[in-house]
Each structure stands twice: as structure tokens, then as C-alpha cells.
Amino acid sequence: MDPIYKSIAANKRWTYLFFSFYAILLAIIGYSIGLYFNSITLGLFIAGIIFALALVVSYYGGQSVITSMAGAREVSKQEEPYLYNTVEALSIAAGLPLPKLYLIDTDVPNAFAAGRNPENASITVTTGLMERLDRLELEGVIAHEMAHIRNYDVLLATVAVVLAGTIVFLGYMARYSAYGGLFRGRDRGGSAGIIFLILTLVLIILAPLFAQLLKFAISRKREFLADATGADLTGYPEGLASALEKISTMQKPKSKIQNTALNGIYIINPAIGANTVSNLFSTHPPTEERVRKLREMEF
Predict the structure, then answer these.
(1) Which residues form the active site (predicted)?
(2) Is residue 259 helix, strand or coil?
(3) Binding site, residues?
(4) Alpha-carbon distance 204 to 19, whole Å?
């Protein structure tokens, strides 16, 4: 089987796995809540409602959620003709529909793609990317993001970000509920109170673990594959290689685009920057390795 189609199939399997894991986690939480209120049916019903809402929002509205979280605004062809012309040319070359285009107003160069399939996808770039890259470098970055859309990486990334965000939110709610319960004198005691306390601890522990799982889900292999696919699309690997070198040296500490939930979907992790040593827990492969592989490609 072609590596691209293998990657697409693997990404869809990962998405189903994420949904299954999320459903099991919510069922456990709902069961515990049901014990606390002496109605397991009610707890499972609440969990089912949360699961259905998260499913619908992440699948149908995930792209909008992510661009909103990133502080991006949609731009028209009249506003950004240069960006539109670049993306239109690559869309035709890739045989993909034209994605929606978003812009983040910051001088830090970076970009990401989001959505659920090629027909419902978007590409977001920063104003810094537009200003600091030349035409061939910008094409390399856009082609990389097009590859994420074509390989269905965006589906997994979008769903994972929204679901992880829900779990983190539930963790915060459980933590504040626990504090509130302590200050009110624990008016619900007995075994139900102990179960609720255990649930609280589980949520507090699971929230960051789930976020970490998200980082691994958006794996290094997908970045290598998107690099290769993007370079193949433009026929000029040096454009993307040069862009990666520039972008990786221009990330800033505490910049506008840094967001723990979103860092993994950018072409260069905004939290890594140029001077941080790559490590086993990074969401992206080392930039030097990506550049080396691109420059080894032959056409």
C-alpha cells in the first residue's frame, strides 16, 4: 500500500481510538457521579450528554474552536491576495478544495492546518510568516499544511485538541469542587464522598496525562511525512527546508501563539524555539533532522 494511504488509514484508526478512550473515561466519571447522587442512571445519562456534545463540537466545530483559541481571524481574497494566490495554486496542484484562510497578527512566523477533511479545512498563518519568508519558502510551508489536510492529520489533531480540552476543563471543575467541598465542611460523607474524592484525584491526574497523550498522537512521523509530501508537491524541498530554519530561529518566549493545547499543531512548536534542546517528549522532530531529510530528497 502507498505510504500516504497507510498514513491516512492510521490517522483514522487513531481518531477512533481517541473517541473510544474518551467514551470509556466519561463513562467511569458518569458512573462515579451517579454513585455520589445515588443514581447511576443519572450519572451515565450526564456522561452520555457530555460525550455527544463533545463529539459533535469536535467533529463539526473543531476547526472554528481551534482558530478561535489561536486568536486567528478569517481573511478574504481582497484582504490578502498574495496569500490566496499562493494557496490557490497549491490547492490546484494537490487536487484539493481551497481551504479557508486565517491570519494571526503577530510578528512570530508560524502556521498550522485544522479541520475534519479536505472539504472542511483551514490554513492559518501569522503575519510574521508572510513578512519574513520569500515566495518559495512560503510555498513550502503552505504545501506542508496542505499535506496535513490531504493525509487527514488535521482530523486527528482537531479532535484530539477539543477532547483533551474538555478533559482538562473537567479536571479544573473537579479540583474547584473539591476545594469548595472542603470549605463547606463536606456535607456529603460516607462511601459516596470517598468515591467522589477518588474521582477528583483521578481527574486531576488524568488531565495533564491526556494532554501529553495528545502530543504523542500528533506524532513526529506525521511531520516527516508532511514535509516529504509538501516538498513533493512544490518540487522544491529547499524552499521548505529554508523556511523551517528561519521559523525555528524566530520563536519567542511567551509569544501570542504559545498555547499548551495548540503548540503541537504548528509547523514549528512555538514553545521550543531555537535554543531548546530537542528531547524525547517533543511533539516535533528536531528541525535539523527535518531539514537534513528534505535536502537529501532527489527530484
Answers:
(1) 145
(2) coil
(3) 144, 148, 223
(4) 20
Q: Which residues are catalytic?
A: 145
* C-alpha cell read off for 217: 498522537
Annotated binding-site members for Zn(2+): 144, 148, 223
All cell numbers assigned to 168: 482538562
C-alpha distance from residue 138 to each of 12, 30, 43, 240 (Å): 29, 47, 50, 8
On the CB side of 30, how many CA atoms lie within 13 Å of its CA? 18
**Whats the size of the chain, residue-wise?**
299
Return the pLDDT at 176.
Answer: 64
Joined together, the cell numbers standing for residue 230 give 509538501
* C-alpha dihedral (12, 18, 19, 22), degrees to nearest 10: 180
Does the pTM surpass 0.85? The reply is: no
In tens, the pLDDT along 214-236 reads 666 666 677 888 998 899 899 99
Could you give the 3-state DSSP secondary structure of residue 130?
helix
What distance in Å separates the CA atoms of residue 203 and residue 179, rounded to the nearest whole number? 14
Sheet holding 120-126, edge to edge: 73-74, 100-104, 120-126, 111-117
Looking only at the bridges linking them, the beta strands covering 100-104 and 120-126 are: parallel
